[in-house]
């Protein structure tokens, strides 16, 4: 299974977003991750569909949109029209998660589901055939620059086991505290898609070096 490095623009310098995204491309990023926060499900407020539309105009890389919002079903079409290639919704905000994932697929977008650190992996068993990506938050969502939660490794292991047992082809994505010191362990646990903000955009040697440092830290099979 291929490795995906997904720079999160939550940590980008928005005074020069076009150049920041260009540097991501030069560094070999596989997609651009857009964290959407509403100030209700998580403490912060971040982006809306217009930022996704702007990113779509700036790059041909896939846009991975992570909706950390309540009632995401009301906004799916807007983000799809803005250019999202993949939309992940939180299990915790979707009482009708089956319907929500179906709607994302009907919009022509790859469906994903995310779970918080305190949410059990097993809650996704009945819908494991419905999503193409599962995002395991390795920090509590809402802020960039947090430290990786060590117990997340067991959770990634459990998710890998669940997907294998149910025959799901979904990719495990991790987000939160992912850097050159933590990426190897989550890779060994079963993750293959890595979201990183601070360790890429604030890397002392620049964005491409930040991406390359993450790739270099992943063990070869």
List the helices and strands and how they pair.
Layout: E1 4-7, H1 17-26, E2 32-37, H2 49-58, E3 63-68, H3 76-82, E4 86-90, H4 97-106, E5 110-115, E6 133-137, H5 152-166, E7 171-175, H6 183-189, E8 193-196, H7 198-201, H8 207-217
Parallel strand pairs: 1-8, 2-3, 3-4, 4-5, 5-6, 6-7, 7-8
Helix pairs in contact: 2-3
Number of domains: 1
CA-to-CA gap between the ends?
11 Å
Average pLDDT confidence is: 95
**Could you name the CATH homologous superfamily?**
Aldolase class I
CATH topology (fold) name: TIM Barrel
Give the topology string: H per helix, E per strand: EHEHEHEHEEHEHEHH
Q: What is the CATH top level name?
A: Alpha Beta
Query: Would you identify the regions where 5 or more consecutive residues have pLDDT less than 50?
Result: none
- Give the CATH architecture: Alpha-Beta Barrel
Question: What about the largest sheet?
Answer: 8 strands, parallel
Mind telling me the C-alpha Rg? 16 Å
Taken as a percent bin, the fraction of beta residues is 15-25%
- Strand tally is 8
Strand order, biggest sheet? 1-8-7-6-5-4-3-2
């Amino acid at each position: 299974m291929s490795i995906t490095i997904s720079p999160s623009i939550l940590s980008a310098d928005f005074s020069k977003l076009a150049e920041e995204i260009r540097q991501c491309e030069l560094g070999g990023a596989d997609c651009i991750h857009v964290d959407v926060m509403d100030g209700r499900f998580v403490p912060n407020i971040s982006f809306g569909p217009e930022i996704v539309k702007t990113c779509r105009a700036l790059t041909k890389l896939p846009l991975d949109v992570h909706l950390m919002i309540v009632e995401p079903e009301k906004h799916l079409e807007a983000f799809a029209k803005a250019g999202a290639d993949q939309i992940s919704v939180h299990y915790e905000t979707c009482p009708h998660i089956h319907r929500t994932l179906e709607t994302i697929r009907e919009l022509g977008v790859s469906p994903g589901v995310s779970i918080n650190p305190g949410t059990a992996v097993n809650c996704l068993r009945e819908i494991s055939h419905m999503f193409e990506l599962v995002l395991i938050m390795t920090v509590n969502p809402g802020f960039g620059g947090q430290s990786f939660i060590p117990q997340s490794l067991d959770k990634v292991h459990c998710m890998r086991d669940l997907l294998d047992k149910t025959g799901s082809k979904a990719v495990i994505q991790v987000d939160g505290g992912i850097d050159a010191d933590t990426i190897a362990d989550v890779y060994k646990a079963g993750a293959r898609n890595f979201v990183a903000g601070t360790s890429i955009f604030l890397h002392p040697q620049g964005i491409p070096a930040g991406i390359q440092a993450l790739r270099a830290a992943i063990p070869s099979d």
